[in-house]
Design a protein that fits this description.
It comes from Hoeflea alexandrii. The protein contains nine helices and 31 strands. By secondary structure, it is mainly beta. Helix content is about 10%, strand content about 30%. It is globular, with a radius of gyration of 23 Å. The strands form six sheets. The protein has a nine-stranded antiparallel β-sheet with strand order 16-17-18-19-20-24-23-22-21.
Length: about 675
């Protein structure tokens, strides 16, 4: 932590530091919030919180009333049928009755047949580079040979918790005010190199045998990517002077990817890794008067979360001032070729990407959606110039180098204007420091500022539904939004629990520059009147949630939402996976299907093509309070004294077979 970051609350571990940093909000723009008067009133859509009379609860609901609502859920209303999990907090995971949740891959598990066994007491970077990485986030599945029970699992590894990874390293001590705090050990080069190897991603072949998924360790396409993996920069920023370094004078080659949060799989079967909080990996100070100073301030770099720059010059901006410009991109990987060079597709813009989910438009072009995960930042979509060719995979391999990036303005009349980030259009010109499209994509945030995009409450996953023409935007929270700064699309000040926006693309045209929107859900406990949650009255005491983060559309077009930030002290429950109705009388009804162990975040989710498996990524389990390797909040999933707590991917299937969430 450096002087740039001064949190309001005491920070006791890395996860809390990351959350507090995201709570800062670095958008200095005064973009209009729907007008001086109309901004301070809900539009009809915002007030209703969505159509079909989904209303906020105006008075405190008694426990008796909630119990009656629990018992009175009308059968047949919901698109989902399963026995709801009871919300709560404990050391293990819980899944709906009649389902199995099997741990498929843990941190340190073998990725190759010759990978070393996981030995937490004797970790090395070489071993980690052949083992499953840390803090699994996005999960994707690519069928092999057209089979539903055989394919490649692709998994992002977002970040590392050194205090939970390394024995005899972190301790519980006192800060300057005498308060208990996790005290980090020395970030030696060995520790740093292991962390770097634990980042990135994994490609691993999996197969379903006797109803259970198993890794295939001798799979020919198995691969580990990490911070040392060579990658290419492509698109409008490739080769630009702002991306050149001492190690790469061409500005076209970069080593590694980091902080890969959500992601996507393209229609042509490539894997997209979205680089999110890249700013946290840099230390040092720019030389006085350096031209990147304004750019880096807008992104919060360098934040100094990690000490990599002490041992690797490229992560010290005083030595390599252009290196941060080489991160914050969407990385495309061909998992079918383990020797292929991943490509950072700069046309999709540089930001703190949360995902890159896609849909094939009716004209054949492909549309990608993304949130920029920070308070007061923006929602984007990218539309390819050329159409997808389902009969020629090779013809699609560079579609992401040519297209238009748009940023969203959510207007109070219920419309969305998708504004193009194109050099020379509007304010994106030399007068404002944009000399080319390279400058526009490198400083996508500032370009959005100038266009007047809507400052959102931490936009994360944005998921299109090809069956309905709808798009679901997860807005996790924003406790820094003040009274009087609300707008129709972000209607609550001090929004601690987040909300979900439903976008309707005009006539099912995902490439449209004009859409409509409404609020599907305002999250939080509906029993607390001042929260203003808008779950349907059929939602039980277990069914409500806060902090929506990722989401998925299953094979039947139903919405599932995973969360990040629920805890005993915030909501009295852990994060988990909730099924959310979006249509009919059950709209805005939510049911808890899976909950994670204490300290964990629920990432993924991903349904296989049949809808009979959902893959879930349990991230940073045990990271609650004063947690260290020796004293985690849980030892999930092994529950062995000689094993640390381990992030893991879980495969959930129905006992006896069948689709998830259906009778």
């Amino acid at each position: 932590m450096n002087d740039m970051f001064k949190p309001d609350e005491e920070i006791i571990n890395l996860t809390e530091l990351r959350e507090a940093e995201e709570d800062v909000g670095r958008n200095p723009s005064d973009n209009p919030t729907m007008g001086d008067i109309i901004n301070r009133r809900f539009s009809r859509r915002g007030f209703l919180g969505g159509s079909l009379a989904v209303t906020a609860i105006a008075t405190t609901v008694s426990p008796l009333a909630l119990m009656i609502a629990d018992e009175a859920r009308a059968e047949g209303m919901s698109a989902f049928s399963f026995t709801e999990v009871e919300a709560g907090v404990d050391e293990t995971h819980h899944v709906a009755e009649g389902y199995d949740a099997d741990v498929l891959l843990r941190w340190g598990d073998k990725v190759f047949a010759d990978s070393p066994d996981f030995d937490p007491m004797n970790q090395t970077a070489e071993s980690q580079s052949k083992q499953f990485g840390y803090n699994n986030d996005y999960v994707g599945f690519i069928p092999l040979d057209g089979a539903d029970d055989h394919g490649l699992l692709v998994v992002n590894h977002e970040y590392t918790n050194a205090e939970l990874m390394f024995p005899n390293w972190a301790t519980i001590g006192k800060d300057g005010e005498g308060k208990d705090k996790v005290m980090m050990g020395e970030f030696t080069k060995d520790i740093v190199d292991i962390e770097m190897a634990a980042h990135g991603g994994t490609v691993i072949e999996i197969r379903k045998q006797d109803g259970k998924w198993m890794p295939v360790l001798d799979g020919k396409m198995n691969r580990r990517l990490h911070v040392g993996t060579e990658m290419a920069l492509t698109g409008p920023a490739a080769g630009h002077d702002r991306l050149k370094t001492n190690a790469d004078t061409s500005g076209t080659k970069v080593f590694g990817t980091l902080n890969n949060c959500a992601g996507g799989v393209t229609p042509w079967g490539t894997w997209l890794m979205a680089e999110e909080n890249f700013h946290g990996y840099f230390i040092g100070e720019l030389p006085e008067g350096h031209p990147e100073a304004v750019n880096y301030k807008r992104y919060g770099a360098p934040a100094g979360w990690y000490n990599w720059g002490t041992h690797h010059d490229r992560f010290d901006v005083s030595k390599e001032p252009n290196e941060p410009n080489r991160f914050g991109w969407v990385v495309e990987v061909d998992p079918m070729d383990p020797n292929s060079v991943p490509k950072k597709r700069t046309a999709l813009g540089r930001m703190k990407h949360e995902g890159a989910e896609s849909v094939v438009n009716k004209d054949g072009r492909v549309v990608f959606y993304c949130g920029d995960d920070e308070r007061f930042d923006y929602v984007y979509k990218f539309v390819t110039s050329a159409a997808y060719n389902p009969d020629d995979r090779a013809a699609n391999m560079d579609l992401l180098d040519d297209g238009i990036l748009y940023v969203a303005r959510f207007d109070a009349d219920g419309t969305v204007d998708w504004m193009p980030l194109v050099h020379g259009e509007g304010p994106l010109n030399a007068d404002n420091g944009f000399m080319s499209q390279a400058d526009v994509v490198i400083e996508a945030r500032r370009a959005g500022d100038l266009l007047g995009a809507t400052r959102m409450d931490r936009p994360e996953d944005v998921q299109p539904n090809a069956m309905t023409g709808k798009v679901y935007c997860m807005l996790t929270n924003n406790t820094r939004r003040k009274e009087g700064d609300e707008n129709a699309a972000n209607p609550r000040a001090n929004n601690a629990f987040g909300h979900i926006i439903e976008i309707s693309e005009t006539d099912g045209d995902f490439a449209s520059t004009k859409s409509t929107w409404e609020i599907l859900l305002k999250c939080g406990d509906p029993a607390v009147a001042e929260v203003g949650a808008s779950f349907s009255s059929a939602t039980t005491t277990n069914g409500w949630f806060g902090m929506p983060d990722n989401c998925a559309i299953d094979a039947d077009g139903r919405l599932w939402v995973s969360t990040d930030g629920n805890s005993e002290k915030r909501t009295g429950r852990t994060d988990g996976l909730w099924a959310v109705d979006t249509d009919g009388d059950a709209r805005a009804t939510s049911k808890l299907f899976f909950r994670v162990p204490v300290g964990a975040e629920m990432c993924g989710p991903l349904f296989d093509p049949t809808g009979e498996t959902v893959f879930l990524a349990v991230q940073h389990p045990g990271d609650e309070g004063l947690a260290t390797y020796e004293q985690p909040a849980t030892r999930w999933p092994d529950f062995r004294d000689d094993m640390p707590v381990r992030p893991a991917v879980v495969a959930v299937t129905k006992q006896g077979g069948g689709k998830i969430g259906m009778a």
